[in-house]
Amino acid sequence: MARRGGRIDLASLAGSVGDNSSVDSKPVTPAKNTPADIPSDVSTYIDGQLLANVPLGDLIGNPRNPRRRIGDLSDLSTIAERQLQPGVAITRATWLKIFPADEKLIGAARYIVVNGNRRLAASKEFGRTGMDVVVRDSIATSSESILEAAIIENIGRSDFDVLEEAEAVQALVAECGSADAAAQRLGRSKGWVSQRRALLKLSPELQEKLRGGEIAIRLARSLAQVPLEGQVKAWRAAQERAEKQSAEEGSKETDPPTETSSSSTIVTAKAVRSLRSLRKVGVNPEVLAKALREIYTDEEQRSLRDALGQ
């Protein structure tokens, strides 16, 4: 098992740069074996062997994947022509040694994909008949190692729901027996693990706002320390304080217009106050970007990107 800083390095195992990649300078070179050549006796596999174009019917996504939603697959549409990165899979026999209760879940599949679930979904959506995978049973030493691999594959990705991440971390804590052990396996600090688990204490209403980007993670962590029945009230109070503070700061920083003040300077000052208000209440930058895309034309968006680049 390849380890680095206490983490399973799936990237080094499969040469993968992640499910979100749609371009790469070195496409996968297919192995000599074809589906017809794949031996039925999985014990003959060499750990790390690349199997080319494994029929999709022989593959199934990780039934214990912490990601509940695959999301938009348009970034992987090029997989219809060629697969740039292989997935990492575990043989059926090895999986069932660890999770015997999963036999019905995996059906007749011969391999369980633990790294590359989005690539598998994209292969199905965009018309591929097979997918390249690296068979790596050595990472499946325990239920903890498999869950660890799945979490590490997804952590930090913009399309990985932060609450899914929190639930996955909580599941790993349960598997490992302690938060300290989970932190060590993930190569993260104890504080990071504690902060992610705290998000699960939020009320359902605030969890949805966090998921939608209306609440910043740092504010969500603070709200999670408030008793459940008072969290929404505390959030609204925080919004009001932030808006009031932003308005006060804006009035202090902006001098009254003079005869020499240009209209652009006045508009800029107002825009700055508005953006500060949004930041104070914890609006996610991605939500702001989505709003800008809705009100600006493509040409205006390009101008905005150029101006930000300067």
Task: Explain what the structure shows.
α7 (179-186) packs across α8. The strands form 2 sheets. This protein has a 5-stranded mixed β-sheet with strand order 3-7-5-6-4. A two-stranded antiparallel sheet has the order 1-2. It is globular, with a radius of gyration of 24 Å. The chain is 48% helix and 10% strand. It has helices at residues 10-14, 92-98, 103-106, 117-125, 143-154, 162-176, 179-186, 190-198, 204-211, 217-223, 231-253, 263-280, 285-295, 298-309, and strands spanning 3-4, 7-8, 49-55, 59-61, 87-91, 111-115, 130-135. It contains 14 helices and 7 strands. With 310 residues, the protein is α/β, with parallel strands linked by helices. The longest helix is centred in the last third of the chain and has 23 residues, at 231-253.
Short key terms for the protein model shown above:
single chain, 310 residues, alpha/beta, five-stranded mixed beta sheet, two-stranded antiparallel ribbon, 14 helices, 7 strands, 48% helix, 10% strand, globular, disordered N terminus
Short description:
The protein is of the alpha/beta class and 310 residues long. 48% of the residues lie in helices and 10% in strands.
Helix content: 40-55%
Strand count, sense and barrel status of the largest sheet are:
5 strands, mixed
Helical segment count: 14
Counting DSSP E segments of at least 2 residues, the number of strands comes to 7
Strands side by side in the biggest sheet: 3-7-5-6-4
The helix/strand series, from N terminus to C terminus, equals EEHEEEHHEHEHHHHHHHHHH
Distance between the termini: 45 Å
The general outline is: globular
Given as residue ranges, the uncertain stretches (5+ residues, pLDDT < 50) are: 1-43, 258-263
> What portion of residues belong to β-strands?
5-15%
* pLDDT averaged over residues: 75
